[in-house]
Amino acid sequence: MKHAPLTDNDYQRLSATLQRFQRLQCMNLEKLDGFFTALLCGPEAIKPTECLPLILGEAFDDEQAFRSEKDLEKFVGLLMGHWLDIAHTLQQGADFQPWLDADEQGVVHGNDWAEGFVEGMQLQQDDWNLLFDDAEHAGALEAIMALAFERHPDPEMRPYIDNSDSSQREQWLAAISPAVQEIYQFFATIRAQMEAELEQDEADEQR
């Protein structure tokens, strides 16, 4: 099946919808991108529809959030499209480019993306501990974790007490793409094993 990526207009609509719910603790597109990337890199992909409460925040329980069922379906369709865009990039081994928005001064921070990634990791914390405990590959998480905890309210949880300089930030941001590919490959064997077991279970049920 040929992959049909979302268009620029699709992404504008997705971003605008997420932005509309910002006051209700909804993820923005940058955080959503990090969140989806973690779910797809991990050992077991969780369907985006299962994560709607986390994505939408309080808007998930707001009956007035979407004007109609059709509007909600369109939104979910855009979410799935973005999910498939990321999945396709990872599966093809293509260069991964995180969705990073610039602030009003044109500065890219990357914190929202990294915080979204960590939120995705937390859904399968036990499985992600396999990576944390792997001496050879654990370093792939260093830049992501640094950005994710840079704004933590507890100073002891921040990688740097003072704000990082622009050079350090550029290094962290540049490290995201290769890190994602390394993490995706790290869990590849586990994903393949789980998919094989699922196929075997389905085959057994059909007998």
From TrEMBL:
<dbReference type="Pfam" id="PF03695">
    <property type="entry name" value="UPF0149"/>
</dbReference>
<dbReference type="InterPro" id="IPR011978">
    <property type="entry name" value="YgfB-like"/>
</dbReference>
<dbReference type="InterPro" id="IPR036255">
    <property type="entry name" value="YgfB-like_sf"/>
</dbReference>
<protein>
    <recommendedName>
        <fullName>YecA family protein</fullName>
    </recommendedName>
</protein>
